[in-house]
Amino acid sequence: MKNIKGVIFDLDGTLIDSMWMWGVVARRYLICQGAEPRVDLESVLRSFNTVEEATYYKTEYGVALPLEEIIAGRNRMMMDFFCNEVELKPGVIEFIRLLHRFGVRMCIATATERELVEPAVHRFGLMEHIERIFTCDEENTSKINPDIYIRAAEYMGTDIGNTLVVEDALYAIKTAKKAGFIVAGVYDLSSDDLQEDIIRVCDHYWKDLKEALSCFTIN
């Protein structure tokens, strides 16, 4: 892989092994609110940002709370996991160090709120080389459109055609690819049923970032 000047990483399912827990928490939260989660809950929520998810709880499950309270309640359930339990996916530290050694600029673009993101990234020391975290809620967007990736590339000062987006979710991969970014897909169990589509859309596909180490060269 040549001429990469910047890399934009997704967080959940790409750098950290957390996607499975979002589904667990979504079900727990709805049960606590007296609702019965449907079997397709995880697949429905795949492309939602935080506000969209909370709105879905209200419209589809009748959760009679303000959006802010729904988001806060869900985040409380996730906080301990992000602070103390979540693990890095294989090869993350080594890959980030490799990129840094070659002078590649790096950002994170995530649909997860900063209050959850920061404990995890600082716990693993990721911000030693990653310059900035962009969150969908702060940027008032979702990964259905490419705004968050474009803003991250602008911040790094890299052209879209020389910027790699690393994602695990098919809908986000499609968004970044359509916008002209170079896109690498990373396997995550939460998208196991979509891997053929992910491979077809991506420029590169890795089982994990440990696998990426062996094929990444920069000129």
Task: Please provide a written account of the structure.
By secondary structure, this protein is of the alpha/beta class. It folds into two domains: 6-18 and 86-213, Rossmann fold (3-Layer(aba) Sandwich); 19-85, DNA polymerase, domain 1 (Orthogonal Bundle). 48% of the residues lie in helices and 12% in strands. It contains eleven helices and six strands. It has a six-stranded parallel beta sheet with strand order 3-2-1-4-5-6, with helices on both faces. Helix 1 packs across helix 4 and helix 9 (170-178) packs parallel to helix 10. The mean pLDDT is 94.
Short description:
The protein is of the alpha/beta class.
Tell me the layout of helices and strands.
Elements: E1 6-9, H1 19-32, H2 41-45, H3 50-61, H4 67-85, H5 92-101, E2 105-110, H6 114-123, E3 132-135, H7 136-139, H8 147-156, E4 163-167, H9 170-178, E5 182-186, H10 195-201, E6 204-206, H11 209-213
Helix pairs in contact: 1-4, 3-4, 4-6, 9-10
